[in-house]
């Protein structure tokens, strides 16, 4: 069955630039999304931080709206990567409601004072959203931004730059909460510590 998201006879995603070269598309994606990520992080692009499915969709839309028509919209096809089958398209909304309803019930972890316990909760949301994989492409960047927002809401800055791409792939593939929590705990810094580090660099 032909994937409606790609140019016929290729694995290249249909994009607003009409690019049909994989490396070129990846490079354009990287340039645009890196810039938008920075603007979102600095508050130049406003996102309504409701910590629900709408919040995640908004992040994806802002990151990819210059590149793909379907930015911010859930996929309509089933996808897999490296042998991992993600949530079936027909169940995405139902599963998303389960994930974010539980997050709301947990009061977005605001009552948790222990850093390791918070890391475990944060890691579980990360892994759940990863298995949801609601978009045709760009899931990793969207979920990392969402997790960053959730960490900041609780007084932490998650330093993704210290977590290599290889480690990110490994924890996503392994779907192991203990492993994920340990990595998050190591790279979660209290906001005031992050501010002090920035000041020292000046």
TrEMBL record:
**Segments forming domain Fido:** 51-197
Which leading EC class covers this enzyme?
Answer: transferase
Return one Gene Ontology term, BP aspect.
regulation of cell division
| Coiled coil region boundaries | 174-201
PROSITE patterns given for it? FIDO
Instruction: Print the keywords alphabetically.
Output: ATP-binding, Coiled coil, Nucleotide-binding, Nucleotidyltransferase, Transferase
Read off the InterPro entries from this record.
Fido, Fido-like_dom_sf
Recorded superkingdom: Bacteria
* A family per Pfam: Fic
Q: Name the reaction it catalyses.
A: L-tyrosyl-[protein] + ATP = O-(5'-adenylyl)-L-tyrosyl-[protein] + diphosphate; L-threonyl-[protein] + ATP = 3-O-(5'-adenylyl)-L-threonyl-[protein] + diphosphate
Query: Which is one GO molecular function term here?
Result: AMPylase activity
**Per the UniProt record, which EC number(s) apply here?**
2.7.7.108
Q: Does the keyword Transferase apply?
A: yes
What's the protein here called? protein adenylyltransferase
């Amino acid at each position: 069955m032909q994937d409606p998201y790609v140019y016929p006879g290729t694995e290249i995603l249909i994009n607003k630039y009409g690019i049909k070269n994989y490396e070129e598309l990846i490079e354009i994606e990287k340039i645009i999304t890196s810039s938008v990520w920075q603007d979102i992080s600095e508050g130049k692009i406003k996102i309504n931080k409701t910590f629900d499915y709408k919040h995640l969709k908004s992040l994806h839309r802002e990151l990819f709206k210059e590149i793909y028509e379907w930015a911010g919209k859930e996929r309509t096809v089933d996808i897999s990567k490296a042998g991992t089958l993600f949530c079936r398209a027909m169940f995405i909304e139902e599963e998303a409601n389960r994930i974010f309803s539980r997050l709301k019930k947990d009061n977005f972890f605001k009552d948790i004072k222990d850093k390791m316990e918070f890391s475990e909760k944060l890691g579980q949301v990360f892994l759940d959203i990863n298995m949801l994989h609601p978009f045709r492409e760009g899931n990793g960047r969207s979920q990392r931004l969402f997790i960053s927002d959730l960490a900041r809401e609780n007084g932490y800055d998650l330093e993704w730059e210290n977590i290599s791409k290889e480690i990110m792939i490994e924890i996503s593939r392994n779907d192991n909460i203990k492993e994920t929590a340990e990595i998050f705990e190591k790279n979660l810094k209290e906001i005031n510590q992050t501010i002090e580090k920035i000041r020292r660099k000046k």
